[in-house]
Amino acid sequence: MGRQPRSLSRLPPASASAVLLLLLLFAAESALSLDNGLIRTPPMGWSTWNRFHCSINETLIQDVTKAIVTSGLAKFGYVYVNLDDCWMAADRNSQGQLQADAATFPSGMKHLGDYIHGLGLKYGLYGDPGTMTCQRRAGNENHEKIDAQTYAKFGADYLKYDSCYASHDYQLHAYMDMRDALNATGRPIAYSICPDASRCNDEKTVMWDASSVANVVMCRGDRAEWCAKHALGTGGNNNLGDIQPAWHSWTCILDANAGFNSMRYAGPGHYIMPDMLEVGNGMTAVEDRSHFSLWAMIAAPLITGNDLRNMSRATLEILTNAEVIAVNQDPMGKPASRVYQSDDKTAEVWSRQLHDGNYAVVLFNRDAVNKQNLTLLWSYIGLPNDQPAKLRDLWEHNDMGVFSVNISAVVAPHGVLMLKAEQISGGMST
Question: Any idea which residues carry the catalytic annotation?
């Protein structure tokens, strides 16, 4: 969600060394406490925020849930139906519990959860560790235990926990408090957090090893607000820091993730979320394909944010490319790295090692106008020049042949060539 002004810190002043010591102690104490067995591969599903923002209601959610099933998306792994901000009322009930916004969710949140579960899908809710959510609904500060119990009573399977109206220092404790409260409910609830951008790339903040705190950590980089501002006017929302349905937005976030120290923590049970997908929200089909390919490569959660009730055939085909999804869901869980970038930054090669010893590769043309002849050198992915590899085009679903040393291909403007490189013991190179 977009960042709003935060409350003052509720922690007393401390020296930098004392804060670091505190972080180390908390990290050591809780290093194994998130071992909840969930999110062994990046979660897949749908979220309300990118397309609908605060304009949500129970009829919309029910209709989208049905669309996930009838479109076939559920069969490809899209199982989470995640409600972002605005499902809750601004005030708590007389027992101090979170409650649904009665105007938009008159049947209540448990009823909605039962509906989603009845169609074989999973139910995600949203919270915020501050005094209010980003949209000024009831926040979770000092209510972690009762709110975790409420989420469990509603039947939640996933919690997205934001950071609005919670000071930078307070977040550290609040995220761990909610983690522990969720664990104490006895219900398996996947846990996703959205910390300040600076925590994602802080070598000293060792507790942001995602495996000790959350199953999913959203990281968009210190330039997240710049990325969003750069894309404004393209039909996106105005919450600075959120991804927009625009080329410059998602590629800017991709660049930030390419340098994140936190990416090294990604793996089974704990993944990095650059942001939700904008496929089907107004970019070209070529750009949507590139966006989906790169999110798959970096082991990002595939949480789509379009209107699933009214999507084009091209959008559905992108979201249901089983071969690209298989790369994203590879059980090794290791994110791709950018292994080559041209001097003018318009040509890139990304490589991801897979659990079977093979590689997924993307040749990425960032030029907006010109086709480019891009080359994959075996050295980019760590293969010896004499190692034969069978290449398969994952978008054309075409076996290209056996190659060694390198391969070159023409890639469309803003397009990708996504390959699987399978090492073989012998064979003729093409």
Answer: 162, 242
Q: Where are the alpha helices (DSSP H) in 87-143?
A: 109-118
**Pick from 192, 199, 113, 183: nearest CA to 154:** 113
Beta strand 372-377 with 406-411 is antiparallel
Mean pLDDT by 10 residues, the chain (430 residues): 41 45 44 76 98 98 98 98 98 98 98 98 97 96 97 98 85 90 97 78 52 84 55 43 89 84 79 95 98 97 98 98 98 95 97 96 98 96 92 98 94 98 71
For 87, the 3-state DSSP assignment is coil
Cβ-in-10-Å burial (0-12, 13-18, 19+) of 27 comes to: middle
Spatial CA neighbour of 246 closest among 222, 281, 218: 281
Cα diameter, the chain: 75
Residue with tokens 């996703």: 192
b/e for 162-183, b at 16 or more Cβ within 10 A? bbbbbbebbbbbbbbbbbebbb
How far, in Å, CA of 274 to CA of 260, rounded?
10
